[in-house]
Amino acid sequence: MNETVAESTLHTFSLATGIKAALLMLAGLLLANLARRLFLRASSNRFSAHTQAMYSRVIYYALLILFAITTIDQLGFDVSVLLGAAGILTVAIGFASQTSASNLISGLFLLGEKPFQIGDILRVGSDTGEVISIDLLSVKLRTFDNLFVRIPNEALIKTTVVNLTRFPIRRIDLAIGVAYKEDLKRVRQLLLDMASDELRVLEEPQPYCIVTNFGPSSVDLQLSVWTRRELYRDVKSDLMMQVKSLFDSHGVEIPFPHLTLYSGSQTAPFPLAMAGSHSPSSNGDGEAPRS
After folding, report:
1. Hey, what domains does the chain have and what are their CATH numbers?
2. 110-114, 195-199, 218-222, 241-245: which range is least confident on average?
3. What is the distance between the alpha carbons of residues 184 and 7, in angstroms, rounded to a whole number?
C-alpha cells in the first residue's frame, strides 16, 4: 500500500515537474521573441539594419540559453556538470570546425567595423549584388539577375570588398573614340554641352572631358560626370545613346578598325591573268596561222 502511494506521488511529482519545465521553456521562447521585437522597435532610429539584426539575434539566443539552463535545473539535473560537459564539447567542436570558428570571429570584426549594411550593393570578386542578410557566419547577396550568393565572413575579411552605395553620388566614366581627322576641341565642347543639358548630371563636381590615348584607329577621350548613385545605370545608358545621336547629327566619325592591303607598289594595280585564255594570233594547236 505504501509503495503504491509512493509511486503515485513520484509519478505526480514527475508529471508536474515536466509540465512546469515545459511551461517555463515556452515562456522563455515567448519572452525571447518579445524582447527581440521590442529591441528592433526601440532601436530603429539608433542603429543600422546590420547592427539591429546582429544585436537582436544575440538577445534572442541569450534569453533562450538562460531559460534552457533554468529548465534543466528545474528538472533536477546538476547544471554545473552539464555546463562542464558543454564546455568540453564546445572545445571539441571548435577544433573540428575551425572554419566555422574563423567565420564567427570574422563576423564579429565585421560587426565592429561596419564596412556595409543591409541594402548596400557590394562587389566581391566576380559577384555583385544587394546585401539581404548579415549573419555571424556569412553574408547573403541577391544579384541583379536574382541569384542567391552566400559569402563566408572569413572570405570577406581576406578579400577586397567594393561598396558601390557607400556614398550618395557616383562618377560615370564614358570611354569615347573619334577619328584622327576630327577637331578635338569641337568634339570636347559638344560632349560637355551634352552633359550640361542632362538634368540628372550634377553641376558640382563639374563634368570634364580629357584625351586619354592615341589608339590604333582613334583618338580616345573620357567624359566624366557625376550623378546620384540610384540613377547611375540609367544615366550611363542614356548618355551613351545621346553620344551616338550627337555624333551622327554633327558628322563626328566614330571609327572602327580598318584593314588595308599593301602590295608593295603605291599606284600599280594587282596583275590579273585569265586562266585558259588564247592569243588571237595563234590557232587551236598553239601554232601561228599559215599564210
Report:
1. 8-96 (1.10.287), 115-163 (2.30.30.60), 169-250 (3.30.70.100)
2. 110-114
3. 102
